[in-house]
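Deliverable D4.2, example record:
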Amino acid sequence: MGKVIARKPGVHIRENTTISFSKDDETGLFVKTEQDTRTNILDYTTKKIGKPRISKPVYELANSKKYDYSFDITDPDGKPMTLYFKKKT
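Output generated by the structure prediction step:
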């Protein structure tokens, strides 16, 4: 029989905000979507909390010197690259 491990209530729960971008076909700008999630690290489960918050299409691709958000991705050839997004003024 396994040993019982005492834990504080809620210590195994983590709340995060996931941010993603999608391109708006009409304007060519990007829409930011934020979704809150709750992760139980003991059960390896993740649940979405509430509805996603979707911004207006006001973000555009930027350079590495001036940006609000950056995403590290892997291109189809397997090479790492970074996308930079800046809020359009």
